[in-house]
Design goal:
Growth Hormone, Chain: A; mainly alpha; MFS; membrane; 2 domains; 305 residues; two-stranded antiparallel ribbon
């Protein structure tokens, strides 16, 4: 039974707390994807631009330095001589760390709670994103240091999806899991759209590629503070939700499990094709996201090969 300040706080929330967890999970994934995409856009303005005109494969003359179509970054100290191989290593280094922490992230979420696994993962990603401009300038564009930073960003972000799944399993009953799960995981799509579009706007308006790292990294820190104060790993450990809401997920889950237990085998047999489609979709989307902007600039002759 809630009393005192816990009772007062519980009345301040007009929606069930499982929806708050789902919304915060949505914002976590959205922020993770914006921080993932920042470098894909920023790197197009971090490399030394080509100063001469060039012709494409089909003989079309492309003006690289025409008026209004030149580089946004004017300070030569913020431009680095990275060839295409180096840029490819920098862009791919995120995934070197990202693949490592998926399984440990799930284990940690089960053992210590999704709140801490997700929160610390997003916070570390935000911190490494925030210090990226300072470190890059401090080492005078040494790409090896930038690769190391991106590996650390990937290590932090790799815990996101395992922790989200652990949280949804604790908070959301089976009858609502598809709906709230769709809401939460939609953050990846919106984060990709916002990350790419806002990064271009920020760089253009500030004429500084570092602005995207400060903006999205700062948003990650703000998210972490709100997450720490409002969300918990499971209903039982939450200090200011009602007893009814604490029992709701487990009651509904047991009811749905009894109804759907006979369909479990059939559902398991049909999951293979869905996983295959999902993998191909992710492969294509991430490939375009990671290297599409570099290809466009090379084709138009705005960057160095």
């Amino acid at each position: 039974m809630l009393t005192g300040w816990r009772l007062y706080l519980s009345k301040c929330f007009i929606i069930p707390h499982r929806y708050i967890v789902a919304i915060m999970g949505f914002l976590a994934i959205l922020n993770a994807y914006t921080m993932r995409t920042t470098l894909s856009i920023a790197i197009t303005e971090m490399v030394i631009p080509r100063n001469s005109t060039s012709s494409g494969d089909h003989g079309c003359q492309v003006e690289g330095d025409s008026e209004g179509d030149g580089p946004i970054i004017k300070n030569p100290e913020d431009l680095y001589d990275w060839d295409e191989t180096t840029q490819g290593l920098i862009l791919s280094s995120f995934y070197w760390g990202y693949v490592i922490t998926h399984m440990p992230g799930g284990i940690l979420a089960e053992k210590f709670g999704g709140k801490y696994s997700l929160g610390i993962g997003i916070l570390s990603t935000a911190v490494f994103t925030l210090i990226t401009p300072a470190v890059t300038r401090l080492v005078d564009g040494d790409w090896r240091w930038l690769c190391a930073l991106r590996v650390c960003v990937g290590l932090g972000e790799g815990t996101t999806f395992p922790a989200i799944n652990a949280l949804l399993a604790k908070w959301v009953p089976l009858s609502e899991r598809s709906r709230l799960g769709s809401l939460t995981f939609a953050g990846s799509l919106l984060g990709t759209v916002l990350g790419t579009s806002l990064s271009g706007i920020l760089i253009k308006e500030t004429q500084d590629w570092a602005s995207v790292f400060y903006f999205f990294g700062g948003f990650g820190v703000v998210w972490f503070v709100i997450w720490t104060l409002m969300c918990y790993s499971d209903p039982e450990s939450h200090p200011f939700i009602s007893d009814k809401e604490k029992k709701f997920p487990s009651q509904r889950t047991s009811e749905c499990f009894e109804r759907k237990q006979s369909d479990t085998l059939e559902g398991d047999l049909d999951i293979g094709p869905a996983l295959g489609v999902n993998r191909r979709t992710n492969w294509t989307r991430l490939g375009i996201l990671r290297y599409g902007y570099r290809f466009t600039q090379i084709h138009e002759g705005h960057t160095q090969i």
